[in-house]
Amino acid sequence: MGSENECIKGNGKCICFFCLPDKYAEVLATLFIIGICAGNHFLNIMIHEEIGAFLSTAAYISDSTVLVSLLVFFVGLFWQKSFLLKQVTVVFAVYIFFSLACFCCNFITLIFGDCYRETYNLFTVYTDFYLEDNPNTKLEESEIKKNIKTKFYLEVVAHIFSLGFMIYYYITTSSYVEKINRSEEDYIHKFLDNNNFNINVSGNSNYSNYGKYNRTFNSSNNYSAV
User: Fold this and answer.
1) SS (H, E, C) the chain
2) Which tens digits make up the pLDDT trace of 111-132?
């Protein structure tokens, strides 16, 4: 069972970079995921006009936060400081949750997009937007609506893959951070154990020297008395 978990976690590295050392595999995976997050921003807000303007604001805030977090993590990879690495596991988990919420809103809106009457029909609304932006188009309204549907469905598929990559990155990165944290704790424990050992050795040495001095002093007193 333990080996299966290690296989799922990738032993702290993305399977795409499995042949590289842990740190460099994580560096490349982080650069890759920064690009994924940049693209995911537009997938999160792909129908924000219908869901609400607040979604765009929330998306900008969440994307800015996660990108800053990933940059701090990127710096931490070279310094190998756990406090710079651990923060990304919390921030990225929140970002994944936000992206999942956006995906659910988008997906549900698309599923029921054709269920409303023409005035509130999602695809009709976006067809009207297209005609306003492109008044000289030669496409028929039915063709425009079909293209819009295809575009949205492809974006949903891309969103699913994006979320899959982010979840996998989160799992492997959490494993990597845990490994670094464990290494730091082991180093601290060894350092403290060595210090305690040195203190004990020093104490025993002092006690031994004191015993020798005491015996010498007593012998000297006895000799003087004679």
Assistant:
1) CHHHHHHHHHHHCCHHHCCCCHHHHHHHHHHHHHHHHHHHHHHHCCCHHHHCHHHHHHHHHHHHHHHHHHHHHHHHHHHCCHHHHHHHHHHHHHHHHHHHHHHHHHHHHHHCCCCCCCCCCHHHHHHHHHHHHCCCCCCCHHHHHHHHHHHHHHHHHHHHHHHHHHHHHHHHHHHHHHHHHHHHHHHHHHHHHHHHHHHHHHHHHHHHHHHHHHHHHHHHHHHHHC
2) 876 666 555 677 888 888 888 8
Q: What is the pLDDT of residues 28-74, one digit of tens each?
A: 999 999 999 999 999 998 886 655 677 788 889 999 999 999 999 98
In a domain, 57, yes or no: yes
Do the domain assignments include residue 224?
no
The residue with greater pLDDT, 20 or 226, is 20
The number of distinct structural domains making up the chain is 1
Q: Is residue 187 part of a domain?
A: yes
Nearest to 173 by CA among 12, 65, 36, 16: 12
Asked if 75 contacts 35 with a C-beta cutoff of 8 angstroms, the reply is no
Instruction: Write down the pTM of the prediction.
Output: 0.73
Give residue 85's domain range. Answer: 2-197
- Whether residue 225 is contained in a domain is answered as no
